[in-house]
Design brief:
With about 160 residues, the chain is of the alpha+beta class. The chain has four helices and five strands. The protein is globular, with a radius of gyration of 17 Å.
Length: about 160
């Protein structure tokens, strides 16, 4: 198998269109069907959005996206620049809890769309793996049902005393 490795750098959320084009070119090259293309596109843009939101205090933040084709499938690694990190020391407790809830929701969506996900301990990189060699109808249905169930789930919010 011929090695296929590509990289992209985006500097902020306004350049997310570059990531979308990057994913579209890769999926066109490998003849990925529209349903699976949608999974890949949504998962990669959500992962980049997570890293941008964790790094919003930095003005020089860059996100590096690399793509690699392996026998396992398509692998997208999305990571923060080398000298960046998440700073939660100055954040309000309420803002921290809101951010945790939003991150949990975003990560659930990404996990439902990918075959494998790896998030680094220090939240500097997210690796998404998509098995394209044996994508089957049952897996698509399972993912669709998981997302439908998630979006229709009712949450009981009660204040703790």
């Amino acid at each position: 198998m011929k090695q296929d490795y590509r990289e992209l750098v985006i500097t902020d959320n306004r350049e997310i269109f570059k990531l979308e084009r990057f994913v579209e070119e890769i999926c066109d090259y490998y003849n990925i069907n529209n349903e699976y293309f949608g999974n890949i596109l949504l998962a990669t843009t959500e992962a980049a959005g997570i890293l941008f939101s964790l790094n919003e205090a930095k003005s020089d933040g860059k996100i590096y996206i690399s793509f690699d084709r392996t026998p396992k499938g398509l692998i997208f690694k999305i990571r923060l620049g080398n000298n960046q990190g998440v700073k939660a020391d100055t954040e309000d407790v309420l803002e921290l809890e809101i951010r945790k809830h939003k991150l949990a929701r975003d990560i659930f969506i990404i996990k439902a769309l990918t075959d494998e996900i790896t998030i680094s301990v220090n939240a500097k990189s997210i690796v998404l793996v998509f098995y394209v060699s044996s994508m089957n109808y049952e897996k698509s249905l399972l993912r669709i049902n998981q997302l439908k169930e998630y979006w229709t789930k009712k949450v009981d919010v009660k204040q703790k005393k």
